[in-house]
Amino acid sequence: MIKKTILTLSIVFLSYFSYKGLKRVNFNSNFEVGQRIDSLNNVIVFYNGGVDNIVQRNTKDGYNLGYEYQCVEFVKRYYYEYYHHKMPDSYGHAKSFFDKNIADGEINKKRNLIQFSNPSISKPKEGDLIVMGSTILNSYGHVAIVSKVTANTVEIIQQNPGPYSSSRETFELIKTTDGNWELKNKRILGWLRK
Description:
Elements: H1 2-22, E1 36-40, E2 43-46, E3 57-60, E4 63-67, H2 71-83, E5 106-108, E6 113-117, E7 129-132, E8 142-149, E9 153-157, E10 168-175, E11 181-183, E12 188-193
Antiparallel strand pairs: 1-2, 3-4, 5-6, 6-12, 7-8, 7-12, 8-9, 9-10, 10-11
């Protein structure tokens, strides 16, 4: 029984670390890590390869932007370069940008941004920061910037969506029966606005 338990734990342990290691590998030979792949308002989106790939920490004027080529680094660099905005709390994973204890339309003091829930009284706007929760394969969540809004869609621009995923993604936007705006994706927690 003890040998079987040790064998099972060993298999689980090796599988987990093999999976984590694979998430660091660049399987897409069409791009190199650090390659420019897109931009919004002259702020560059870089290719990262595997979603768990970490290069080095990026700072500007002593302000922490995050690990290069990760999603958090792009949105913080975008807000820093385009809006000249520094977040009071310059650390945290993507999902930590959204605080579930803050009411819709109230200020998120850690980010010094107005926070809206999904669904919200406020329709997303270009430049909003979209926050997504974790999944089984991604415990850190994801963040992106709204690049375009139409009557019934929201396009985002993102860094580090995966080696084969696009830097742009579009979500359906609906107005609910109670008059709120909802992005039709269960991962989207909400959006933050300058």
